[in-house]
């Protein structure tokens, strides 16, 4: 990934489709991800938002932070509502009721909304091939309702429904590999991103929006409140998640995997876990075991890149 | 305020705004390629072409560098505008059919055939020149109208690396990736349409990672007037 670190930010659009003044916690990485994503939407975009932190903080009656058409859905049906909007646009355009122009439909959901309760609606939408972009903001638990575990919560993390204690390590299951599930739908574009790498994130959103057919972006979103960290660490922890191999950045175009940032040497996992209260109970042995699995998954991902790239070249 | 219509919609816009700005303020999207809203327009690609009717006379103009005027009627998708836009896109596609931004436009306008023009990664949009002179203020890039390539005037860009701080802003704005930066083993290599240049990078005094080109750090020191030790460490170790 190119390191555009000093001037490129000045040529990013000053347009802010997500207005300031929303009610996210101080230092929230999720709302930063949403703000950057929104900067990459164009004005012909309809936003569909499942309930969760991002919906709550941006729509306290009678206010709304969105400067784009925005619709709130239930916890579980953002993908279904997005499918319906996309289909309605097609029909209205066919009947000449609206001018023929490209309108993007983007669905937003937290990890709970996406990988747990909304997964059937999402799977259905992708299987039917709707031309929508689905963005999952993964802060690794149900934060809006008070830090309950989800299937995206990492192994060993303490949450209110997977509390660490004498007989519990915290979350006892491994994080669900949702991007792979989306790839298995044979959709044209799947990517992972993180707001600590803003140019990469915005480029991926633009790519997803210009994809013809379903696209999925899974964004790692640091949540200082739910992770029990200091509020000035969102960017650093996002970077450490990538540099330790916890959250690799990659994209999958028509089944071909490409890593956007390959670490020649992964940083020690403890750099990432230490500043976080949700991991503070883990001992060195437990951390090494987790680290070993992260490293083997990292290698497996690199292999997937090689294999699919070779297949593509054949 | 100036009164005009865009696609039949009555609009008021501040004097001095361009047609594309007025359209955008009113949620009307016009496709573009060379335009970047944070830079002054070069008006080189013609993808943003629209039909303007003023005093009964119709003309085709690039909307990114044409100011609004009282009483004009703008049509972003009239038959004439679409025809001209398709031609502009076909011209780009003929030069560079690999760049995703161009492929996306070609796909949207069903363009598959190429015109007999020379292929080149750089499509002469001028964005790199604009960013280096207007934002970075280093003026390392020369832009000139370089010969007629068949039917279109083509801009050509040329780098002077003596002034360059290897910031990569030109690579960031290039819509075809004809300029790129690559960091490896303590060296940043800049690849431009006609030259390649290597810049040594600085090592973080804590973790040992190479983190920025030396020329860039020297320039930051000069600009900020801060002491050397403020620039010793990488972003992670600071
Ligand atoms: C069917 C249903 N069950 C439960 C809720 C309550 N609820 C609202 S948001 C939320 C959790 C959201 O978690 P996530 O999707 O991860 O988003 P986050 O708040 O973490 O950003 C829950 C449980 C609901 N609105 N609907
Ligand atoms: S709880 Fe977490 S995700 Fe929700 S607004 Fe606060 S910091 Fe952001
Ligand atoms: S890398 Fe060099 S040429 Fe490019 S914008 Fe920066 S200073 Fe200018
Ligand atoms: S190098 Fe890129 S930015 Fe510069 S003129 Fe050519 S295409 Fe445009
Ligand atoms: S976008 Fe206006 S001329 Fe290129
Ligand atoms: Mg969540």
Please characterize this protein's 3D structure.
The complex is a heterodimer of chains A (314) and B (238). Chain A has 314 residues and is of the alpha/beta class. Chain A has a single domain (11-313), classed as Thiamin diphosphate (ThDP)-binding fold, Pyr/PP domains (Rossmann fold, 3-Layer(aba) Sandwich), CATH 3.40.50.970. Chain A has helices at 29-39, 53-58, 78-94, 111-116, 119-128, 178-183, 198-210, 224-227, 234-243, 269-273, 284-313; strands spanning 45-49, 70-72, 104-110, 133-138, 164-165, 168-169, 189-193, 215-220, 250-253, 256-259. The longest helix of chain A has 30 residues, at 284-313. Chain A is globular, with a radius of gyration of 19 Å. By secondary structure, chain B is of the alpha+beta class. Chain B folds into two domains: 2-108, Ubiquitin-like (UB roll); 127-237, no CATH class. In chain B, the strands form three sheets. Chain B has a five-stranded mixed sheet, sandwiched between helices. A four-stranded antiparallel sheet of chain B has the order 8-9-10-11. In chain B, a hairpin with a 4-residue loop joins strand 9 and strand 10. The longest helix of chain B has 17 residues, at 79-95. Chain B is elongated, with a radius of gyration of 21 Å. The chains are: A alpha/beta (314), B alpha+beta (238). The A-B interface holds A 2-8, 10-15, 42-44, 99, 101-102, 199, 207, 210, 212, 236, 239-240, 243 and B 7, 24, 27-29, 36-39, 77, 100, 104, 107-108, 131, 135-136, 167-169, 171-173, 180-183, 212, 216, 220, 235-236. Bound molecules: thiamine diphosphate (TPP), iron/sulfur cluster (3 copies), FE2/S2 (inorganic) cluster and magnesium ion.
State the name of the first-level CATH class of chain A: Alpha Beta
Strand order of the largest sheet of chain A: 2-1-3-4-8-7-9-10
What would you call the shape of chain A?
A: globular
Q: Which chains make the largest contact? A: A-B, 27 and 32 residues
Instruction: Supply the CATH architecture of chain A.
Output: 3-Layer(aba) Sandwich
Number of strands of chain B: 11
Span of the ends, CA to CA of chain A: 26 Å
- SSE order of chain B, one letter for each helix or strand: EEHEEEHHHEEHEEEEH
Estimated helix fraction of chain B: 10-25%
Strand content of chain B: 25-35%
Distance between the termini of chain B: 50 Å
Could you tell me the mean pLDDT of chain B? 92
């Amino acid at each position: 990934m190119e390191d555009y670190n000093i001037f490129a930010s000045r040529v990013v659009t000053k347009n802010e489709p997500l207005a300031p003044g929303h009610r996210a916690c101080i230092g929230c990485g999720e709302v930063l991800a949403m703000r950057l994503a929104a900067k990459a939407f164009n004005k012909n975009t309809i936003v569909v938002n499942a309930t969760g932190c991002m919906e709550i903080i941006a729509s306290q009656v009678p206010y709304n932070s969105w400067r784009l058409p925005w619709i709130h859905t239930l916890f579980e049906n953002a993908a279904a509502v997005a499918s319906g909007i996309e289909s309605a646009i097609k029909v209205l355009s066919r009947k000449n009721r609206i001018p023929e122009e490209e309108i993007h439909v983007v669905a937003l959901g937290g990890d709970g909304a996406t990988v747990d309760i909304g997964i059937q609606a999402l799977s259905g939408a992708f299987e039917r091939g709707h031309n929508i972009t689905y963005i999952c903001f993964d802060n690794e638990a149900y934060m809006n309702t008070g830090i309950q575990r989800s299937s995206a919560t990492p192994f060993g993390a303490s949450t209110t429904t997977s509390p660490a204690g004498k007989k519990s390590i915290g979350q006892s299951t491994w994080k669900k590999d949702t991007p792979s599930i989306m790839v298995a739908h044979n959709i044209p574009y799947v990517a992972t991103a993180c707001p600590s790498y803003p140019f990469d994130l915005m480029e991926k959103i633009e790519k997803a929006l210009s994809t013809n057919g379903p696209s999925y972006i899974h964004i790692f979103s640091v949540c200082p409140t739910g992770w029990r960290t200091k509020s000035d660490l969102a960017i650093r922890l996002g970077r450490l998640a990538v540099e330790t191999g916890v959250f690799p950045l990659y994209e999958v175009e028509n089944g071909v995997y490409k890593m956007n940032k390959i670490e020649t040497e992964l940083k020690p996992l403890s750099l990432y876990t230490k500043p976080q209260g949700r991991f503070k109970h883990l001992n060195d042995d437990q951390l090494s075991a987790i680290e070993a699995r992260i490293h083997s998954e990292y290698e497996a991902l690199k292999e997937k890149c090689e294999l699919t790239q070779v297949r593509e070249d054949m | 305020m100036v009164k005009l219509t865009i696609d039949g919609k009555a609009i008021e816009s501040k004097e001095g705004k361009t047609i594309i700005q007025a359209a955008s303020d009113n949620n009307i999207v016009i496709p573009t390629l060379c335009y970047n809203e944070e830079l002054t327009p070069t008006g080189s690609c013609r993808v943003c072409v629209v039909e303007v009717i003023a005093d009964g006379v119709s003309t085709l103009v690039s909307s990114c560098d044409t100011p609004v005027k009282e009483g004009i009627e703008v049509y972003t998708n009239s038959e004439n505008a679409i025809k001209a836009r398709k031609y502009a896109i076909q011209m780009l596609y003929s030069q560079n059919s690999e760049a995703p931004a161009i492929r996306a436009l070609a796909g949207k306008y069903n363009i598959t055939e190429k015109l007999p023009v020379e292929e080149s990664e750089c499509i002469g949009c001028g964005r790199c020149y604009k960013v280096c002179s207007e934002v970075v203020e280093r003026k390392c890039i020369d832009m000139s109208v370089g010969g007629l390539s068949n039917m279109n005037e083509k801009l050509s860009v040329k780098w002077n690396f003596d002034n360059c701080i290897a910031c990569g802003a030109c690579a960031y704005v290039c819509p075809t990736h004809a300029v790129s930066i690559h960091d490896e083993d303590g060296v940043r290599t800049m690849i431009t349409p006609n030259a390649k240049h290597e810049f040594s990078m600085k090592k973080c005094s804590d973790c040992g990672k190479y983190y920025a080109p030396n020329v860039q750090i020297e320039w930051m020191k000069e600009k900020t007037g801060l002491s050397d030790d403020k620039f010793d460490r990488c972003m992670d170790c600071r």
